[in-house]
Each structure stands twice: as structure tokens, then as C-alpha cells.
Write a structure and sequence with these properties.
Strand content: 5-15%
Helix content: 40-55%
Number of domains: 3
CATH architecture of the largest domain: 3-Layer(aba) Sandwich
Distance between the termini: 43 Å
Radius of gyration: 20 Å
Largest sheet: 4 strands, parallel
Bound molecules: 1,3-dihydroxyacetonephosphate
Structural class: alpha/beta
Number of helices: 15
CATH class of the largest domain: Alpha Beta
Length: 316
């Protein structure tokens, strides 16, 4: 099918079947343009929880985002166009690893990044995202009356919070990382600074500490977007994250210039959602083939995992 006619069909099916499409900023730009809402992990979790109007939600993002939506809104049918869109960071931690650390630190609460499976969340105390990690950690330390916090699985996000608090942060496990952000380097910073003198440098907290240390601003995808609006720079912005955000910025705020810190920062998993599988998911809504796209979290896991997620939303 031609791209244009596929887009028209998606728009028509969306209306006809009362489907909301929620997309992450790392989605291909043509998917973002079809979404009812585009956000960071926290924004997607909140909107999914509050969604009442539409019959179905299609979560255009990686698997943990759809799973989180399903845990937070258990009465809603949440669909994913491609179950193979995983998050490599999520596989750095599991209940077995958690158990090992819990044995060593039995009185310390465990905060896990939302980039984790439902089972990992079900075995944790509180969740956080890149936009609220510091706030969550400080509130947990106060409420649990402790200065030692277990935090996982991203070592770079752990370093980001460690540099901004006096708390003792134990990374669980030691070396978890997002391969897309972890490969950003000082060489990238040096090259792009030379190519774009005077540009502001924005990086995601999943980037290595030495890269964070060179940034003018460190934040989640939507925080970076907000920064470009609040702090316009005629010399532009060097953006250290997945290129989907840069495509979003060029689409929504074309009057400024955006340069990738590394043009190869492309998350293959995020790009596993495309017009074809989005159309197929919409087409299946309300038919027996819907089950092929439906996110199912066991009741037991969902009831346990919702606790740390709700705590995170209270602290945010
Ligand atoms: P944000 O919450 O900043 O959108 O990050 C999501 C993510 O998965 C980064 O790799």
C-alpha cells in the first residue's frame, strides 16, 4: 500500500474504532504525526492511567511502555503493534538479581527505572523515570528513613542522581546501561562543539557521566524539549539522545536548529513500530485478531507492580 493511502486509512480507522495512539518521542516521525499524544516515559504513564474516552490505546513505544500503561489502566485494552520492540536496558535486572542485593541490604528500599519488566517492578518498592529520579529518591529516603538506596538498572542515571544528593546510592546491578546512550562520548562532544560553535549541549541522563559533565542541560526527552523552548539559542542545540527527539524538535519548532550529538544514536527497537504494523493493529481492533496485539500482564504481577508505579506518580 502507498504511504499516503496507509496514513489516510490509519486516520480513518482511528476515528471509526475510537482508538487513541500514544507515542514516545523516539518513534519514527511518521508515527509521531499520527499520535493523539506524544510524551516521555512519565507523560505516557500518566496519560495512559487517566485515559477514559477511547475504547483502545495503542502504545507506540517499546514493550515496557505498553506494559506500564496496561498495569496503570487495567480496565483498558492496551495494544502494541510489535511485541519485539524490547528495551535492552530492561534485561539488565530481574527478580534473581534483586534478591541478591536485597539479601545484602535487607533494610534498603529498591527504586527501579520504568525501563524494566512487570516482574522486576513487582519486586521493587518504587519506580522512577529520567524526569523524576531525583525527586523520587529524596522522597523515598525521607519516607523510608534511610540514607542507603538501591537503584537500578541504569548506572548512568544512578551517577546522575549520585552527583546531586548526599545519599548512598547502590547501583543494581553495577553495569546496566542503555546501549544507545552509553556509547555517546567525549569525542562526540568535541566534534559537534567544533562543528556548531555556541550551540547549547543537551543530554539524556542515560549518557555516560563524562558526557553529562559537558552538558548545558541534562534531562528527560520532554525536559530537553522544554529547555529548547525556554532557552532559545540562535546557534542551535546539540542533542545527546535518540534521533527521534531531534525529528520531533525539527517538526514542532523548526525556527531553531538541532544537531545530533551522534547521528548513529538510533534505537532499532523503537523503529520496529511502523505504518504497516500500526495499520494492522488498528485493523484488528474489535476483531478476534485483536488478541495478537493485546498486552497481557498476569493479575498477580499487575497488582504488585502497580504499587511502585503509583508511589512514583505520587512523588512526581
Ligand atoms: P524518557 O523518559 O526521557 O523519554 O526516556 C525514555 C527512554 O527509554 C530513554 O532511553
Amino acid at each position: 500500500m502507498e504511504t499516503e493511502s496507509l496514513i489516510d486509512k490509519i486516520k480513518a480507522l482511528k476515528r471509526q474504532k475510537q482508538v487513541s495512539i500514544f507515542a514516545h518521542y523516539y518513534q519514527p516521525i511518521e508515527i509521531q504525526k499520527l499520535a493523539n499524544y506524544i510524551g516521555d516515559s512519565l507523560g505516557l504513564a500518566k496519560i495512559a492511567r487517566e485515559q477514559k474516552d477511547s475504547k483502545y490505546i495503542i502504545l507506540a513505544g517499546v514493550h515496557f511502555m505498553a506494559e506500564t500503561a496496561s498495569i496503570l489502566n487495567q480496565n483498558k485494552v492496551i495494544l502494541s503493534p510489535n511485541f519485539e520492540a524490547g528495551c535492552p536496558l530492561a534485561s539488565f535486572i530481574d527478580p534473581k538479581i534483586i534478591n541478591e542485593f536485597k539479601m545484602k541490604y535487607p533494610n534498603s528500599p529498591l527504586i527501579v527505572y520504568v525501563n524494566t519488566t512487570a516482574e522486576t517492578k513487582a519486586n521493587s518498592d518504587v519506580c522512577c523515570t529520567s524526569s523524576n529520579s531525583l525527586k523520587v529518591i529524596e522522597n523515598v529516603a525521607k519516607d523510608w528513613k534511610t540514607d542507603t538506596i538501591l537503584f537500578g538498572p541504569d548506572k548512568n542515571l544512578a551517577n546522575f542522581v549520585r552527583n546531586r544528593t548526599s545519599l548512598n546510592i547502590i547501583t543494581v546491578p553495577e553495569k546496566g546501561n542503555c546501549p544507545i546512550h552509553n556509547f555517546l562520548s567525549i569525542k562526540d562532544i568535541e566534534r559537534e562543539k567544533k562543528n556548531h560553535p555556541g550551540a547549547s549541549i543537551l543530554v539524556h541522563p542515560e549518557s555516560p557521566l563524562e558526557v553529562q559533565n559537558e552538558a548545558d542541560f541534562i534531562g528527560s526527552t520532554s525536559q530537553m524539549l522544554q529547555y529548547t523552548k525556554d532557552n532559545p539559542n540562535p546557534n542551535g542545540f546539540i542533542v545527546g539522545t535518540e534521533i527521534g527527539l531531534i525529528e520531533h524538535l525539527r517538526w514542532k519548532n523548526p525556527e531553531q536548529s538541532y544537531y545530533p550529538l551522534n547521528k548513529y544514536a538510533i534505537c532499532k527497537n523503537m523503529k520496529k513500530i511502523n505504518l504497516k504494523n500500526l495499520f494492522e493493529t488498528l485493523d484488528a481492533c474489535g476483531t478476534p485478531s485483536q488478541s495478537k496485539y493485546e498486552i497481557r500482564v498476569s493479575e498477580e504481577s499487575a497488582n504488585l507492580a502497580i504499587v511502585p508505579l503509583e508511589r512514583m506518580l505520587q512523588y512526581s
